[in-house]
């Protein structure tokens, strides 16, 4: 059984959004077409409360894309994005959300970010997605969405570590690419046993 995991195809990650990924909207048609090739479709939604600790606006003297040391490790600081209930947090209007069996939200605890669909950035607090997939008998995952080098990569690596067979369709992803982060993410995914297509 296979699932398509669609990572964070939300307005704020598309052109015109608060944390726009270059050409982020261009993958939507291809993602819709991919949905029918899988037994299950899961959407993830970045979902931050106002004043989330990953927002640069919450750290005096810091700017977006600076880093800070959190209790759980180094955290990149972002522009305010995907605030709960905002337009930016909604899925891109062309995404076929009706086809989704479930939507999993992440990043809703103020003190900790969650790039991965499986664990928060402490690599320990589960989102519950693993249980959902296992109880449905799903062993094969295809990941697509935004952004390749953050939420897609973190999710893919965690999924591989959990024992799922994981493929990332790079043509259905777009990257932020901060200081070479795309190349690093690709190497880390490959090292974790993720198939990159
Ligand atoms: C993401 C940065 C902050 C992502 C989410 O979806 O890749 N990146 N929040
Ligand atoms: Zn976020």
From TrEMBL:
Pfam families found in the cross-reference section: Isochorismatase (PF00857)
Record has Lipid metabolism as a keyword: no
Domain of life: Bacteria
GO biological process, alphabetically ordered: pyridine nucleotide biosynthetic process
Start and end residues of each Isochorismatase-like domain: 2-195
Pathway: Cofactor biosynthesis; nicotinate biosynthesis; nicotinate from nicotinamide: step 1/1
EC id: 3.5.1.19
InterPro entries assigned to the protein according to its UniProt record, in alphabetical order: Isochorismatase-like_dom, Isochorismatase-like_sf, Isochorismatase_Nicotinamidase
UniProt keyword annotations, A-Z: Hydrolase, Metal-binding, Pyridine nucleotide biosynthesis
First-level EC class: hydrolase
GO molecular function: metal ion binding; nicotinamidase activity
Family stated for the protein in its record: Belongs to the isochorismatase family.
NCBIfam families: PRK11609.1
Protein name, UniProt field: Nicotinamidase
Source organism of this protein record: Marivita hallyeonensis
């Amino acid at each position: 059984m296979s699932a398509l995991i669609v990572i964070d195809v939300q307005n704020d990650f598309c052109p015109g959004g608060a944390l726009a990924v270059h050409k982020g909207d261009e993958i939507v048609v291809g993602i819709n077409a991919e949905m029918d090739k899988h037994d299950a479709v899961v959407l993830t939604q970045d979902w931050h409360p106002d004043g989330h600790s990953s927002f640069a606006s919450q750290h005096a003297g810091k700017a977006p894309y600076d880093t800070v040391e959190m209790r759980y490790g180094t955290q990149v600081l972002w522009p305010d994005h995907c605030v709960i209930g905002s337009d930016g947090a909604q899925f891109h209007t062309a995404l076929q959300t009706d086809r989704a069996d479930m939507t999993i939200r992440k990043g809703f605890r103020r003190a900790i970010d969650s790039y991965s669909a499986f664990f928060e950035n402490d690599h320990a607090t589960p989102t519950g997605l693993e249980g959902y997939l296992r109880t449905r008998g799903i062993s094969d995952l295809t990941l697509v969405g935004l952004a390749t080098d953050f939420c897609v990569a973190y999710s893919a690596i965690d999924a591989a570590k959990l024992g799922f067979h994981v493929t990332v369709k790079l043509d259905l992803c777009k990257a932020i690419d901060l200081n070479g982060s795309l190349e690093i993410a690709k190497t880390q995914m490959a090292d974790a046993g993720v198939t990159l297509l």
